């Protein structure tokens, strides 16, 4: 079966200028949203503090839940909806400065009493309790950032050895581009940045690099095959040759991700969201951003 | 690469091995008992986020161990110098250093002599004018801190094991933390686990001097402004929890002649009023020490101090050697747990709960069910798509994909990797890359066919030319995964481990398994057209 007519030639390189503007706009929106929201909405794993995930049997408004919980003597900082509305799952958060471990235990005892006696809370249950001391959280952020940066260096070195410097830079720029825009989307949707989302972001990085390398490989082959091809032609050729694969792979990735997004449950929902955004941005950046940098770098090198 | 016998045998071996490794996952509890002797007897381990349970990260104050070591040196020096009629003028402790001050040069010289004979191996001894510094050697400090965390781990292990929970895991995490994981623990277990872990369980026996309803009344006789000054008189203030309103504070001796270390056992009993209490026994030397203490203080009150609080203070009627009991307002469960922590010994240094994660079993089950459902739907859609789009080759890819899943699961259980939510993320990425690998190769084969090559030649060229594309893409991702594994912690490590195993298995399935099956079909049957 053929998806595209053999010999399809779309002038991707000609559209790169427009694409770069779109990317810059997206990055500005992402950074803007991050600044507006004062950075990612760090989950309790990073800030320290406490998070209690409850599931109720009856529909209640966030305000009602909050005001009932305030009567425990340990007023929570935030009560928010989790997953989809029909799930009746909520997240209760306490800031780390307000509450110590013993107080959280006190709150839980009170909460259990409420769930046993209060009519509208009856049948509810505590699904998950996360208490994280401030020391642990800071370490986690630091280690995650170091790991990601070292990952970038590793990719840079490998791609430099297998290809050349311009390609390596292109791959890393695309990777940072994808990470930033995905982070921006998470921030725009005001989703909590949890460890599951870190895993999602790491997956996006993996996907982004994978996708970029496959197109690079073809570009390099074209460059070797005929010295006559200009870098623009080689890149265009390469992107077109791998276009069927790019479309099919994205399609299969979505076949996996959309069920996760829809039926995965509250925990997986946000994670799947991250991957969907990342897959779209990652595919786009491999074609336009990474390849555009290779064109730019090669032409600059050629002219100097 | 032909469908050589070597590769076919390799694939068969890996398949059988994976099936063997996975048998416990499929069979569950009905796995025969002899299985564990030959193969890993546990299948794929599920993390707490998927299974439910409790996760506690305990910070160990190992510096306290250093403090205790220095206090020990001071006690030893005081005791030794007493024989030489030398008094220590004062002492001071900063970090790893103990400074002792003396009244005269002669005293200092004597002290120096004793210090060098006894402590030069563990500390640098520096003489300054009329004072002596003991600076613990860095290696020894590391040793003390290491020992402290080992002891804490041992004590916590003893305590948690005795609760009789299923599969608790207690591990060291870094230099100063202990990770406790109890899968499937209930809310009730959670409370007990936290209580027994946090309890230092330092049991001391002292003699009561005075009591009072408030700090002031207790201190009234001693002419001191604050409790710390009592220490100069060899006394100490303790809060009391004996139930008597007029005895909320006790002044007792500073030293505890007998401590919980001398206990040989402790158990739950009920006193004459039917209230739960803890009875304890002493062993050899402890029994005689306790005998001396009680004999010398008949008519006085004995303070039973648990973690700094006086639990009861009975009047000593006669010499007691073998046993005693702690009464108080306990429930039977509390008394039982107290007996448990007393048996398991005191924590050598204080601990603090730095992180807790409890996942209710229902959320865990829901995560697994929903995760399974959504991944199955996704997987089936991909399989249908591949079969529809690539026909026979699609089926080959699907066979390779299913084998790939089998290998990954098999090796995950072989390496004892715990599958968590981030781990599933790693799996999703791996499967995406596996399908991608097939698509890359098949599209290349199609291109080669268009140039007029025969099916076999096209397969050869397609696989040959895509080999490095697939390798490059996977190696770069593998580099990232390995770096994440090296530097990441907890969940990031789990993600990286799953991804690393997944990538290796994926490359094998893409370039070996799919190829061998393809060659097998087209070489044997000499099919003239390629179904792709």
SSE blueprint and pairings:
The complex is a heterodimer of chains A (about 300) and B (about 525).
Chain A: H1 12-36, E1 41-42, H2 44-47, E2 49-55, H3 62-70, E3 78-82, E4 89-94, H4 101-117, E5 125-132, H5 134-162, H6 165-188, E6 192-193, H7 195-225, H8 231-241, H9 243-263, H10 266-303
Parallel strand pairs in A: 1-6
Antiparallel strand pairs in A: 2-4, 2-5, 3-4
Helix pairs in contact in A: 1-6, 1-10, 5-6, 5-7, 6-7, 6-10, 7-8, 7-10, 8-10, 9-10
Chain B: H1 5-27, H2 35-38, E1 45-46, H3 48-51, E2 53-60, H4 63-83, E3 88-94, E4 97-102, H5 105-119, E5 123-128, E6 131-136, H6 138-162, E7 169-173, E8 177-183, H7 187-198, E9 203-212, H8 215-219, E10 235-239, E11 249-253, E12 258-259, E13 263-270, E14 276-282, H9 284-296, E15 302-306, E16 309-312, E17 323-326, H10 332-344, E18 351-359, H11 361-414, E19 418-419, H12 421-450, H13 455-487, H14 490-525
Parallel strand pairs in B: 1-19
Antiparallel strand pairs in B: 2-8, 2-18, 3-4, 4-6, 5-6, 7-8, 9-11, 9-12, 9-15, 10-11, 13-14, 14-17, 15-16
Helix pairs in contact in B: 1-11, 4-5, 4-6, 11-12, 11-14, 12-13, 12-14, 13-14
Structure write-up:
The complex is a heterodimer of chains A (304) and B (532). Chain A is of the alpha+beta class and 304 residues long. Chain A has two domains: 49-132, 2-Layer Sandwich (Alpha-Beta Plaits); 136-303, Multidrug efflux transporter AcrB transmembrane fold (Up-down Bundle). Helix content of chain A is 69%, strand content 10%. Chain A has helices at residues 12-36, 44-47, 62-70, 101-117, 134-162, 165-188, 195-225, 231-241, 243-263, 266-303; strands at residues 41-42, 49-55, 78-82, 89-94, 125-132, 192-193. In chain A, strand 3 and strand 4 form a beta hairpin. In chain A, helix 6 runs antiparallel to helix 7 (195-225) and helix 8 (231-241) runs antiparallel to helix 10. Chain B folds into three domains: 5-47 and 360-525, Multidrug efflux transporter AcrB transmembrane domain (Multidrug efflux transporter AcrB transmembrane fold, Up-down Bundle), CATH 1.20.1640.10; 53-158 and 169-177, no CATH class; 199-346, 2-Layer Sandwich (Gyrase A, domain 2). Chain B is built from 14 helices and 19 strands. In chain B, helix 1 packs antiparallel against helix 11 and helix 11 packs across helix 12 (421-450). The chains are: A alpha+beta (304), B alpha+beta (532).
